[in-house]
Amino acid sequence: MLGLVGISYKSAPLELREKYAFTEEESLEFLKQLQIDPDLQGAVALSTCNRIEIYFHFLKKSSQKAFDVIFRNLEFHKKTNQDQRQYFYQYQGEEATEHLFKVVSGLESLILGEDQIVTQVKNSFKLSLDHDMSSSVLTRMFNKAFEAGKRVRSETAINKGTASISSAAVELLSQQMPDLENKKIMLIGTGVMGELALVNLVKRNCQSLYITNRTYSKALELAEKHNLEAFHIENTNKYLPACDVVLVATGAQKHIITRKMVEEFASKRNTPQLYMDLSVPRNISTDILQLPNTRLYAVDDLQEIVKETQNKRKEAVSEAMEIIRFVKQEFNDWICALELTPSIRKIQKSIDDINAAELEGFLKVNCIDENELVTRYADHISRKYARLFIRNLKTLSDNGKQREYIEMVNRLFELK
Questions:
Q1: CA distance 143 to 42
Q2: What domains sit in the chain, N to C, each tagged with a CATH number?
Q3: What is the pTM of this model?
Q4: CB neighbours (10 Å) of residue 247?
Q5: SS3 readout for 107-170
Q6: Contact 156, 323 (CB under 8 A)
Q7: What percent of the residues of the chain are helix, what percent strand, and what percent coil, each to the nearest 5?
Q8: What is the mean pLDDT of residues 71-79?
Q9: What is the pLDDT of residue 157?
């Protein structure tokens, strides 16, 4: 069965989502842990600031057993308990396929139609594929999802307006500080989200930007590209007091900005200092809110900012869903055809076995030694009837959609 277990900004608050967030290394470890189950054909773990989802393909398990395997492994890996399962959604079959298509198309994103999710899903899928942890069915499903997403963005107006979490974050900062272009801004993190935030800040003519990253060379490369200043992350304390805005977007699993770092200078500032944390799990300690002249925003605070964009894009959702349903049907047709393969092989083998046994008996009874013409005729009749049965099977089962006909044929050709 195909299925998924997931949690998102729609089903759970940030405090809960960050408990289940994966780094790339953790995703790989978790997928290897899942593969201990012999029925698992493949799995993909997706972890973003707004969602954590596990897509999987089991061979023989019932849906309930499959979901339970995923939950138990997830809870073991993240050291959580069953009480939090209520915040997760579970989909199987066509529902799981449609959900993935909607995710890749940006229909499930906080910002409707945002582009960043495509790269995130591709990276998660590639991790699974590169380590031989995907199945042929999962691979087909993800490739069709990318096809659907590409069509949605090129054939509809789904991505008009603010297009990412990063741009929404910069918009919020601009609302809080109308003269943002005159402020000193620190950016910690040069991944996709951090770079997108930087691009949006530069577009707003922000010039006093200081960039850092765990890997200094990446920060330096980005700074040189935009003619800005980079610094080693170990010097964060040195730059922090002078900055009016601090934007953090990294994959770190601990706080980069702590209360202790901020309280040393917070009371000495005459103007507010804004912190924007786009990381999941969060990289800025919420304790800094107890300090004077300090404001803190996180991913879930962007809801109001995206409402205007959502209204502009909602008209395109129905068009997007038409594309998704069309591509999903193509995938479902492929699945159905795939399910016919064992039945087709059974028909071919059964007729070949009958032919071989009957031909041998016929030649013996009639005292005929090797006779090429008789053998060729028997093989011809066998192939003809096999093709006839297979063609009728495809027609009666609607190319694999009517399962009862497939099961009947499987029983009919269980010949001894």
A1: 15
A2: 2-161 (3.30.460.30), 165-305 (3.40.50.720), 342-412 (no CATH)
A3: 0.73
A4: 27
A5: CCCCCCCCCHHHHHHHHHHHHHHHCCCCCHHHHHHHHHHHHHHHHHHHHCCCCCCCCCHHHHHH
A6: yes
A7: 60, 15, 30
A8: 95
A9: 84
Please give the distance of CA 315 from its chain centroid, rounded to a whole number.
25
| Contact call for residues 56 and 31 (beta carbons, < 8 A) | no
Cis status, amide bond into 281, omega within 30 of 0:
yes
Active site residue 367: no
Contacts of 145 (CB under 8 A, 6+ apart): 97, 100, 101, 103, 104, 121
pLDDT at 192: 86
Question: Starting from the edge strand earliest in sequence, which strands make up the sheet with 51-58, in order?
Answer: 40-47, 51-58, 2-8, 89-92
Please answer whether residues 9 and 110 qualify as being in contact, where contact means their C-beta atoms are separated by less than 8 angstroms.
Answer: yes
pLDDT, tens digit, for every residue of 265-275? 998 888 999 99
Higher pLDDT: 302 or 210? It is: 210
Residue 257 has pLDDT above 70, yes or no: yes
> Which residue did the predictor score with more confidence, 364 or 33?
33
SS3 of 105, please? coil
- Residues 114-156 have pLDDT tens digits of 888 999 999 999 999 999 999 999 999 999 999 999 999 999 9
| Contact by Cβ (8 Å): 4, 55 | yes
Instruction: Output the average pLDDT for the chain.
Output: 87
> What is the rounded distance in angstroms from the CA atom of residue 275 to the CA atom of residue 71?
35
17-28 tens-digit pLDDT: 999 999 999 999
Query: 256, 267, 405: which is closest to 343 by C-alpha?
Result: 405
Residues 6+ apart with CB under 8 A from 199: none
Q: How far apart are CA 114 and CA 306, in angstroms?
A: 11
Contacts of 403 (CB under 8 A, 6+ apart): 339, 397
Q: Specify the residue for token string 């041998």.
A: 360
Residues 166 and 153: their CA atoms lie apart, in Å, by 19
Of 49, 206, 243, 336, the active-site residue reads 49
